[in-house]
Amino acid sequence: MSPSACPSLPVTGWYECHSCTNKPAIHSPGTLKPPRTPSPLSDFPPRCPSPLSFPPSRCPSPPIHIKELQQPERHEPSSWWSAYLGRVMEELKEGVHGRVATDSALIDGILTHADKCNTCRSRAQANLAPFSRLLEKKIEEAIDRVELELPSCVNPVLPPGPSPVSRDGRESS
User: Fold this and answer.
1) Could you tell me if residue 66 is inside a domain?
2) Residue 137 in domain
3) How many domains does the structure of the chain reveal?
4) I need a labelling partner for 170 at 20 to 30 A (CA). Which of 51, 98, 144, 154 fits?
5) Within 13 A of 54's CA, how many CA atoms are on the CB side?
């Protein structure tokens, strides 16, 4: 099987196929090293339906940024993950309540977004529901810690003199 025969291997890509037995070595953008010679058993059954086989920038759900960690490794959040957090933030601007994190329409939309890539799909299905429940809890905890600060016009300064209402809001006698 040549690289062009594998439906998941890009002809001009630089990212190796994660499940195809015909893995080219990562070489440089735009070139592939020759694949290793597969054994007769390694081609049966065919294992290359649609894995993540392209550079992250060409993944249908690519990472949108790279975060450098203290350790010599890279963490690249997928675009479906970043899209989920972005949508939650947008919803929180409209109204502050934790249930935006577990909104079924939002989660279904993100799972549809992640469906374009087998790796993304499995990770989203495994991680999004538990994370969204935890995020909902954290949002509610943060809301509970907020103290209401009212502008001075809500508690107006009353002019001196007799008034049916005292400064603390109770009727005076």
Assistant:
1) no
2) yes
3) 2
4) 144
5) 17
9 and 42, same structural domain?
yes
Tokens of 26: 């990562």
pLDDT tens across 15-55, in order? 333 333 344 444 344 444 444 444 444 333 333 333 444 44
Q: Torsion over CA of 155, 160, 163 and 169, rounded to 10 degrees? A: 20
Per-residue pLDDT tens digits for 75-103? 677 888 888 999 999 999 988 889 999 99
Q: Does the pTM exceed 0.85?
A: no
In a 13 Å sphere around the CA of 103, the CA atoms on its Cβ side amount to 17
Asked whether residue 170 is assigned to any structural domain, the reply reads: no
- Residue 110's SS3 state is helix
Quote the tokens at residue 150: 């009212």
Residue 4 belongs to domain spanning: 1-57
Rg (alpha carbons) of the chain, rounded to whole number = 28
CA separation for the pair 54, 15 (Å, rounded): 5
Token duo for residue 69: 């960690």
Q: Is 31 inside any structural domain? A: yes
In the block, which residue shows the tokens 């294992």? Answer: 47
